[in-house]
Design brief:
With 334 residues, this protein is of the alpha+beta class. The protein has helices at residues 4-7, 10-20, 69-74, 90-110, 168-180, 193-199, 232-242, 263-286, 295-305, 308-325, and strands at residues 64-67, 82-86, 120-124, 132-134, 150-152, 158-161, 186-190, 219-222, 248-251, 255-260. α7 links the parallel β8 and β9.
Length: 334
């Protein structure tokens, strides 16, 4: 990611303007799975994560990918960089979301965000948005596949997918968030080490580096610890603490929770917030004065780094790595 100082240079501003105003014309080929070297380099090359089709499903419909102007500004070379795939069919979108949900869990496993049976990720169902999908209780994050996810309704009853028990606290928290925030399609919570450590202070993260700028005016603190969440009221209070626009909340004496329009966005925000907590704890332990980034610079960096499509794109290297590691197993559907 580019620093505010670098982004302010005149040549790069011209580059950003040039790429940010560029759009796909009707003659630009749709994003598709690339299976062989292309003889026409002018065509758009799209990572596998931007395509619903896999090598085993070459004939399956491929979603269109919209161009993210912010990320296009830092991805130069004369080739437009695709954003979040646009999938019109809700059943195809459901499968795509569950694949990325499984990938997010495997990333969390690799990063060490597991703690017994604690932790959960939820994704709003595109077929019936009043319901959502969540992970089964007691299954290690690193073993989860798309077909393992559980479909539950707003009453916490299993209505489809993998018919097994889910974490009651997870349902209470995620149900409240999905009800309170129609713009949120995914939420992540885990008992990660540095998030738990920082949460004991009951204060937001300082904006002390470029990565932390993503949480500028984008984080809140839930300052009450009510124990394990078994009541609707506690879930509602956490959702209220998240607020109407924030995508991250620090749960005092508990840990972190992030939200986004895609599971990729929410998962990337969680992993970034966990590392930002680690960095802040290291800085605090030095005992030296901190240099806080000013609001103007923080806002400028936030504008170019924290839009949903940029955050989705930032998560794709980790997602693709997990697909490669599992030899595609994590995408196993119903």
């Amino acid at each position: 990611m580019l620093s505010p100082a670098t982004l302010r240079t005149a040549p790069l501003r011209r580059l950003i303007t040039k790429h940010a105003t560029r759009t796909l014309t009707t003659t630009t080929p749709k994003p598709r799975l690339i299976t062989a070297p292309q003889k026409t380099p002018s065509k758009l090359t799209v990572p596998r994560s931007a395509s619903f089709a896999t090598s085993a499903e070459a004939t399956a419909p491929t979603p269109e990918a919209e161009v993210n102007t912010n990320f296009a500004a830092v991805a130069t070379g004369g080739i437009l960089y695709p954003g979040i795939p646009k999938i019109e069919d809700p059943y195809q979108k459901r499968q795509w979301q569950l694949e990325h949900m499984a990938g997010a869990f495997r990333v969390f496993s690799r990063m060490g965000f597991t703690e017994g049976a604690a932790g959960h990720i939820s994704v709003r169902d595109p077929v019936d948005p009043t319901t959502f999908w969540i992970n089964p209780m007691g299954v290690h994050f690193g073993m989860l596949k798309a077909s393992d996810m559980v479909h539950i309704n707003e009453d916490g009853q299993v209505i489809g997918g993998n018919r097994v028990a889910v974490n009651a606290a997870g349902f209470m928290i995620h149900s409240a968030i999905h009800k309170a925030r129609p713009d949120v399609d995914a939420a992540c919570h885990a008992h990660s080490k540095f998030g738990k450590a920082w949460s004991t202070f009951g204060k937001p993260l300082d904006i002390i580096n470029q990565d932390a700028c993503i949480f500028w005016n984008n984080q809140s603190v839930y300052s009450s610890f009510g124990g394990v969440v078994f009541e609707d009221e506690e879930g509602a209070r956490i959702a209220e603490a998240l607020g109407p626009k924030n995508r991250a909340v620090i749960l005092q004496n508990h840990g972190l929770l992030t939200a986004g329009g895609t599971v990729d966005e929410a998962a990337y925000l969680f992993s970034l917030m966990e590392r930002t907590c680690e960095v802040q704890l290291l800085v605090e332990s030095s005992g030296l004065p901190k240099q806080i980034i000013g609001d103007e610079e923080a806002q400028y960096t936030y504008k170019y780094n924290a839009d949903p499509e940029s955050l989705y794109t930032e998560f794709q290297p980790d997602f693709e790595y997990e697909v490669w590691q599992s030899k595609g197993e994590l995408k196993s559907g119903f």
